[in-house]
Amino acid sequence: MTTVHDGPEGTVACSKGAPEVILGACTRQLLAYGETPLDQASRECILESARRLAADALRVLAVADKPSADVEGAEHGMTFLGLIGMIDPPRPEAQAAIATCGFAGIKVVMITGDHPLTAQAVARELGLLKQGRVVSGSELENMNDAEFDREVDNIEVYARVSPAHKLRVVTAFQKSGHVVAMTGDGVNDAPALKKADIGIAMGITGTDVTREAAAMTLVDDNFASIVAAVEEGRVVFGNIKKYLMYLLSSNIGEIGLMVGASLAGMPLPLTAVQILYINLATDGLPALALAVDPPEPGLMSRRPRSPRSGIFTRSVVMLMIIGGLWSAIVNLGLFVWELQSGRTLEHAMTMTFVSLVLIQFFKAYNFRSDRVSVFNHPFRNRWLNVAIVWEIVLLVFIVYAPFLQKPFQTFSLSLVDWCIVIAAALTISPILEIAKWFERRGWFGKLD
């Protein structure tokens, strides 16, 4: 950047920038004893000093001036004044955030206008530069598109880049099939932010143009916040999946029970009021609790899911179907057995109703994860625990309270009856555990 100022002795142009660029505009240098011509040996000595500073992770600027200059001729025949090395230390949490990205299958790439040695030193300090290359903007210009497309996955640091280079990097990653998030704060970052799948502008240091071009704004300018947002996004997506798996599997079980009884020419095992209660109360509260389930263990150590895959992958559909069909089989079998053992229809319907409700309670805990065992911190979701306890209290009232027995057509169950229905309901857990075991081994397709 060059500016021209009015002073007591006339105008003076002041310039700052990359050492190699500023030296290209200089013909003289200022030493302790005055100005001298800037020869090739002096240029090499200055550039070597800049490289030493850059290798210490300092951002290096060269400064120069020219007296009696106008705007057109300011950047010609200048006098080199010196180098400035500035430290811009990474935030303490940035290194841990980058390591988390590595576990999560997110490739982090540094794109900077700093000297390649500065970028390399900072990248090594952050743990970002491992096996990849450091490429400067001039090297990037010498690569054709085909060569760059082949090398883009092997480059981890880009230095001394221009806005056009940033745009080219984003485009190359997208052509390789990556989902690209780009951060930036200056006007020159706007084209790359607009091109990226997710443009992230800095809220504190970012310009208005950058924030307009970006898809989101980072209010604290902290890279670790991006990683935290990725984790939160995975939690939200996972909880939506749990919510839907539980509700749809429960519906499959209810439909299977009613259709199975109808096809067998048997009385319906549930009344309309009981079905309505199950759908509104028994399914509702546990499903809402699953929507705020805590993060699963190892969530940020999983590879990103494909953007082309939805919630209902093959493995998820198989778990829902297995859970729903087993629920229908157990409850229909229990209903048939009760009728054949001489119990009244009202007694058999009550036991089937209670069994179905309990199976769905157990299923809620199983569907807290589509891959992790139910025995891994089963009661970690306190909202689910509260919902289940509350529903059990309501279930006991419906079974035993005289003023509720008539509208719900329930029958007071004995201790033996409770043991039977609890044993029947408990069978859902080992069935789903076996299904998860097969799922983890790829029997239902690739986990996503």
CA-atom Rg in angstroms? 34 Å
**Based on helices, strands and strand pairing, what is the structural class?**
alpha/beta
Inertia-based shape = rod-shaped
The portion of residues forming beta strands comes to 5-15%
The percent of residues in helical segments reads 40-55%
Terminal CA distance reads 49 Å
Mean pLDDT: 90
Q: List the strand order in the largest sheet.
A: 1-2-5-6-3-4
Spans of at least 5 consecutive residues whose pLDDT stays below 50 are: none
Tell me about this structure.
β3 and β4 form a beta hairpin. The chain is built from 18 helices and twelve strands. It has helices spanning about 20-25, 40-55, 90-105, 115-125, 135-140, 145-150, 165-175, 190-195, 210-215, 225-265, 270-280, 285-290, 315-340, 345-365, 380-400, 400-410, 415-425, 430-440, and strands at about 1-5, 10-15, 25-30, 35, 60-65, 80-85, 110, 135, 155-160, 180-185, 200, 215-220. It is of the alpha/beta class. The strands form three sheets. Strands 1-2-5-6-3-4 form a six-stranded mixed β-sheet. A three-stranded parallel β-sheet has the order 7-9-8. Strands 10-11-12 form a three-stranded parallel β-sheet. It starts with a strand and ends in an 8-residue tail after the last helix. The chain is rod-shaped.
